[in-house]
Amino acid sequence: MTLPRQCAAACRTGGGGVVRCRAVAAAGGAVAVRDAVVAPVARRGAAAARKTVAGMWREVQGCGDWEGMLEPAPHPVLRGEVARYGELVGACYKAFDLDPASRRYLNCKYGRERMLEEVGMGGAGYEVTRYIYAAADVSVPTMEPSTSGRGRWIGYVAVSTDEMSRRLGRRDVLVSFRGTVTPAEWMANLMSSLEAARLDPCDPRPDVKVESGFLSLYTSADKTCRFGGAGSCREQLLREVSRLVASYSAGGEDVSVTLAGHSMGSALALLSAYDLAELGLNRAAPVTVFSFGGPRVGNAAFKARCDELGVKALRVTNVHDPITKLPGIFLNEATAGVLRPWRHSCYTHVGVELPLDFFKVGDLASVHDLATYISLLRGADKKQPAAARDRGDAGGVLAKVMDFVGRRRGGGALPWHDAAMIQMGGLVQTLGLI
């Protein structure tokens, strides 16, 4: 039995439920046919939409705090999208220049027009619009000034192409951050004291505190950096992200802002998301963080404010990754209730956790390796992911960094990175990893 033309038109424009057809109802008695036909069609359409990014992009971006999408296993669409963002973060490592002889030393190897193509991601569906530079306002013992407190390439801002936007169901503004590489960044990571963020001068909120080293990286500027231009990491990001959101929103498009980072980059992504939301930009576009192996960033008041502002954060963690337990190994969300006098000094994770499970004896660095994270998300063999076998690009972050700082090591008293590794060794033993 077929439906009249008027009813067929109504079927094409109807929603996800059973919508009655007035034309057929007026003809008398045909409503049951409309219900019987449209209900399963609508359900099939809704089910099909749940299998595409465009059909469920708001859920993927965390509008429902990923409820029902993580257990018993991550939704395949979500899993694929998170892995995709991880690969876009991996591009930062592949493009970062660690050759001391290069004129782009500690900056990006390539121009932004061809960066993604050069690192093998020409089909990623994004156009890089700006490079981002950050400088930590810290001094590094035994290191020459050229590597201490200077602005270095930390990531990039990109926007989805027209074709990718159709697949995603919206225009996506992406901010991608790499993790710790330079000695100054390692020193910033060790600055575990909490400091009032005070990012909004009209409402400073002194109770909202974040790790001082991360805040320094985000807000300090190095005007001598020949690649970065004027301004701190924060100023560069606010200008570019607000420009892109305003431009595409004015054209009537749905726009999202996605911030993704690994390790220290996760901390910068969360700080940026909080900043954007505090300034009201998330009223024009949802702001989402995808964090890979990220540390804690701020105290309970920081978490509460992020929740209040609607910042969505999905923390992808390896349960054996010690970096995700820092800072606040003792003063954290788990101990705040017991250590009440110090509860305002307790670090607290923000967002929803997506836990992974990987550990390889004899290769401790792999537990924090971005490529390991991506491999697990892609569903590779958990006992020996591809990342553990091939560490030549985004992988082997800790090994690569320690090799780099080892080559830069000076003589004299106990170098900063030795102290850092001793501290990390103590932490690893505390966690029972070795």
TrEMBL record:
Pfam families hit by this protein: Lipase_3
Domain of life: Eukaryota
UniProt entry keywords in alphabetical sequence: Chloroplast, Hydrolase, Lipid degradation, Lipid metabolism, Plastid, Transit peptide
GO cellular component, one term: chloroplast
Claim: Transit peptide is one of the keywords in the record: yes
An individual GO BP term: floral organ formation
Localization in the cell: Plastid, Chloroplast
Principal location listed in the UniProt entry: plastid
Annotated catalysed reactions: a 1,2-diacyl-sn-glycero-3-phosphocholine + H2O = a 2-acyl-sn-glycero-3-phosphocholine + a fatty acid + H(+)
Domain Fungal lipase-type: from-to ranges: 175-329
Molecular-function GO terms, alphabetical: phospholipase A1 activity
EC assignment: 3.1.1.32
Family matches, as InterPro entries: AB_hydrolase_fold, Fungal_lipase-type
Function statement: Phospholipase that releases free fatty acids from phospholipids. Catalyzes the initial step of jasmonate (JA) biosynthesis. Required for the biosynthesis of endogenous JA in seedling, inflorescence and spikelets. Not essential for JA biosynthesis after wounding. Mediates spikelet development and specification of empty-glume identity. Functions in a high temperature-dependent manner to maintain floral developmental robustness under heat stress conditions. Functions by safeguarding the expression of several floral identity genes, such as MADS1, MADS6 and G1.
The family this protein is said to belong to: Belongs to the AB hydrolase superfamily. Lipase family.
Stated name of the protein: Phospholipase A1 EG1, chloroplastic/mitochondrial
Annotated source species: Oryza meridionalis
Organism placement in taxonomy: Eukaryota, Viridiplantae, Streptophyta, Embryophyta, Tracheophyta
